[in-house]
């Protein structure tokens, strides 16, 4: 139960090192997009790669070549989806969430917070960590597609072009004071 033989340990060591090298080579070939901040699709690919690595390492019925092919297929599919989502809005809508406006012109948007499962304190923490002392100083806080918060301060010319792809709140959305 704790130890069968040295062959199994040697196989795990050799296959582990070779599979690790293969993953690094494949990820380097595919470029920076493969290693970017994760959206839901990227997380699925990452989990699948980890699961494949574990299977290759621990299952003697899976050959190293099969594991490397599985890595290549997963990374290739991720590249295809990233390529397609950069070119077509429909694919982008399918694989990526849209950013969510959580605070607008100093007002916390309660419905948006509930829908995104974010506590008001998390928004306040994001505002503080961006160097603002008052919520009223902030133009917007956006929950990005990768789960991070972006805090947008006021622009000198009043422009909000960085918020162009963020859905705007309806008239009843400003229901909470940012006090």
TrEMBL record:
Residue spans crossing the bilayer: 6-27, 39-58, 64-86
Highest rank taxon of the organism: Bacteria
Annotated spans, Disordered: 153-179
Name of the protein in question: DUF421 domain-containing protein
Native source species: Skermanella cutis
Annotated membrane topology: Multi-pass membrane protein
YetF C-terminal domain: residues covered: 87-155
Key words of the record: Cell membrane, Membrane, Transmembrane, Transmembrane helix
Subcellular location: Cell membrane
Pfam families named among the record's database cross-references: DUF421, YetF_N
């Amino acid at each position: 139960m704790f130890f069968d033989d040295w062959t199994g340990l040697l196989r795990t060591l050799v296959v582990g090192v070779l599979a690790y090298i293969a993953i690094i080579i494949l990820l380097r070939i595919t470029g920076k997009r493969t290693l970017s901040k994760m959206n839901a699709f990227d997380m699925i690919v990452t989990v699948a790669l980890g699961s494949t690595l574990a299977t290759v390492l621990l299952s003697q019925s899976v050959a190293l070549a099969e594991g490397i092919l599985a890595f290549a297929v997963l990374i290739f599919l991720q590249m295809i989806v990233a390529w397609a989502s950069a070119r077509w809005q429909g694919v982008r809508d399918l694989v990526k969430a849209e950013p969510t406006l959580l605070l607008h012109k100093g007002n916390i948007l309660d419905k948006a917070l509930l829908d995104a499962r974010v506590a008001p304190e998390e928004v306040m923490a994001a505002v503080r960590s961006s160097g603002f002392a008052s919520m009223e100083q902030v133009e917007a806080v956006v929950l990005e597609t990768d789960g991070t918060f972006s805090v947008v301060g006021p622009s000198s010319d009043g422009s909000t072009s960085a918020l162009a792809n963020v859905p705007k709140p309806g008239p009843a959305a400003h229901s909470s004071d940012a006090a």
